Amino acid sequence: MADTAAEEPPHLELPSTSSNSTTKTASSTTNYLHPRREPFEHGLLPIPKLIFPDATQTLSHLKSTLLAADSSNRVNPVTLAGALQISIDHSRLILETLSSVLHDDSDPLVNAKTPQEIDSIGVNVFDLLVYLYIQSYKRLLPKGHKDSAAVADVWPSTSAFDGFLSALSPLQLVRSNSRRFMPSQADEEAHQLSYLQKHLGNIVSLLADCVEGEVEDSLVVSMDIFEHIGFLLYFGEKGLERSPLSQISPFFANSDPDMPAVPVPASQVLDWLLENVATALEHISERISLKENGPSSASDQDVTMADVSTSPAKALTCARGPSFIEGISKSSYLKQASDLKGSSVKVVNCHESVIYILAPLRYATVYGCSDATIVLGAVGKAVRVEHCERVHLITAAKRICIANCRECVFFLGVNQQPLMVGDNHKLQVAPYNTFYSQLEEHMNQVGIDPSINRWDEPVALGVVDPHDSLSHPAGVSDVQAESATRLDPDQYTNFLIPNWWGDEFDGSTKDNPFTLPHAYLASQQRNHKNMEEIKQILRETPLEDSRKRELSSALHVYFKDWLYGNVLL
Asked: Which residues form the C-CAP/cofactor C-like domain (predicted)?
């Protein structure tokens, strides 16, 4: 299967128990088991040393080493770097990335803002083990285009890697004009569940404690350890809050906090998990079959922007699945918090448009867009931009990853270093350049610190992503991705967001909350001064009414030309 590493880790045998101990929770209710998409979509890092030939054996040894190093079961970047024989920068990057996809927002690492705080707090060893294990995951390939030859003329090969990246080019998405040639959310969920079904035995045994028995050693899982499996799986349905595994499982549900539950045999935990995974896969298969063979019900469909509610919604609710903004072309498009279901957004296949998503979000993905300006309000976990061309992206976010993009400009207010991976070309970064009235309120909600902006510290990893399922030319695995250059301050301008809704959503933000570097501030002040001088000259110039109309018409023409060149391109 495409979702395994080059060499399959051996499966650790677990002690057998009676199948009667398995609780059929999912099969008796509509509360199905689901994979957490966040680790698979935002948590994978193309660092070759994290792809272990024998993951179980390597991570079992790492577990022993790290638990012996600190009685608090937490590990800092220095210790991790030594244990994995990687650089301290890569070690810290692992912790930053892991913190953005943690399932438990109460973990202190989630709120760490500076490298010093990350070093001091460290990461839970068991969360780290699960995170490192899934680095063997292979993403699901997009479905092949029915007319691949037809797109070759609009996506010329300009690098050694285009032979295998062309299948994912944004211009191919333009021709298809839909997501039907990309994996659906149901396909991706099934792919992730299939991967977990194959590897849960290793993961459970890796987390379990070994207890000496009279005859032989046995593996058991405590409630605390069981919670860490929640990094990968949860129960819930669309529109409902996610339920932690321990609240649904027959082993630890309704446990008394003052009297910890007795550890459960690891084999019993595994049997219960696999039964629920199988039930969930069967349910997904039925949904896919209904979609392919006839009209499907609204409850089976992915959340699209046509479905979003117009009623007010709580910020950062955990409704399952992202909201999609899809196929926008040659338009201006606005969505606010009350328009979105949940707290994640995917902008897919949008072209020659200006898109505003002025809301507090946890995650955002921009995929396959071209010739567009996209404003993402405040993203508290992670942004991923992939396979885009000539896009201007403006966002305040905790972190951002940019993969396989060309000729894009990123105006960033980010608390962590921008990550560049894959086959990028001619990318530019610049400081954040806009605001809207609720921006600071949204940033506070999702935990973005305006006093920290690392927009100009991009980190470039490898061109080849070991998590995709594409074949790669020999000898390119060690090539470093092209990084981004700083935008010339003379080309830096403020981006004005129109106030369509008047005072209905009045907020306290009156200016850009991020401090501008001196060169960009000076450029901004020069532009403002020049604009005021031009306005003054126009006011003082005596013109007849007919000449004023001609001048106004000319200004409108030049403004439209500027708008097309600077906003849509």
From this structure: 312-448
Coil/strand/helix, residue 304:
strand
Reading the block at residue 440, the tokens are: 């600071």
pLDDT digits (tens, 9 = 90+) for 339-351: 888 899 999 999 9
C-alpha distance from residue 517 to each of 30, 457, 486, 492, 502 (Å): 53, 13, 12, 12, 31
Exposed / middle / buried, residue 399 (Cβ in 10 Å: 0-12, 13-18, 19+): buried
| Size of the chain in residues | 569
Exposure b/e, 199-217, CB count within 10 A at least 16 = b: bbbbbbbbbbeeeeeeeee
Are residues 185 and 192 in contact, defined by beta-carbon separation less than 8 angstroms? Answer: no
Locate 280 and state its tokens: 């969930």
Distance, CA of 281 to CA of 276 (rounded, Å): 9
The answer to whether the beta carbons of residues 419 and 461 sit under 8 Å apart is yes
Helix axes 55-69, 185-207, angle to 10 degrees: 60
- The edge-to-edge listing of strands for the beta sheet with 218-221 is 209-211, 218-221, 264-265
- The region of weakest confidence among 108-122, 235-249, 320-334 is 235-249
For residue 242, which amino acid is it? R
Token couple for 231: 């990094």
Interacting residues of 453 by C-beta distance below 8 A, sequence separation 6+ = 412, 413, 414, 415, 431, 432, 514, 515
Q: Which positions ≥6 away from 472 have C-beta within 8 Å? A: 164, 464
Model confidence pTM above 0.85: no
Q: For helices 185-207 and 266-293, what crossing angle results, to 10°?
A: 170
pLDDT digits (tens, 9 = 90+) for 446-494: 999 999 999 999 999 977 777 776 555 544 555 677 899 999 999 999 9
Rounded Cα distance between 519 and 188, Å, is 45
